[in-house]
Amino acid sequence: MKEGFTTVAKIIIDDDNIVHIIIKEGANIDTPQVKNIYELIDRMYEGRPPLVLLDGRCDYKLTSDARAYIAENAKSRVASALVTNNIAMKSLFNIFIKINKPATPYRIFTNLDEALSWLKSFIAK
Predict the structure, then answer these.
(1) How far apart are CA 46 and CA 98, in angstroms?
(2) Predicted structure pTM score
């Protein structure tokens, strides 16, 4: 297992090689911070396209520019799962998916185990 940190998130690569992005409580995330997260993942994951689990169960804000950057760079991921308990955030990301149409599979979950199971389905592919 590998760990890394940015000002807004903790990054973990687990034993299944799934990248966990754990957002810090109260984080205000803009495009430069998303770029920092992606750069750290690329270094930790040695440039290979990862499976990404975004743990967004805390209270945080993500700018519209940051969301657009995430959508534009989705092709650098195999698949991404967002875990959130926040109904507003879930609705926002559903709209994000419909509008921005990420280039790779992207799903939203309220259950961490279900999100991990879905991501693991891409390991054999």
Answers:
(1) 30
(2) 0.86
Total number of domains in the chain:
1
- Among 120, 100, 99, residue whose Cα is nearest residue 109: 120
Three-state SS string over the chain comes to: CEEEECCCEEEEECCCCEEEEEECCCCEECHHHHHHHHHHHHHHCCCCCCEEEEECCCCCEECHHHHHHHHHCHHHCCEEEEECCCHHHHHHHHHHHHHHCCCCCEEEECCHHHHHHHHHCCCCC
Residue 121 lies in a domain: no
Which positions ≥6 away from 92 have C-beta within 8 Å? none
Q: Which domain holds residue 19?
A: 2-110
Q: How far apart are CA 8 and CA 117, in angstroms?
A: 26
Kindly state whether residue 118 falls inside one of the protein's structural domains: no
pLDDT tens digits, one per residue of 41-76: 989 988 788 899 999 898 889 898 998 888 788 777
Asked whether the predicted pLDDT for residue 117 surpasses 90, the reply is: yes
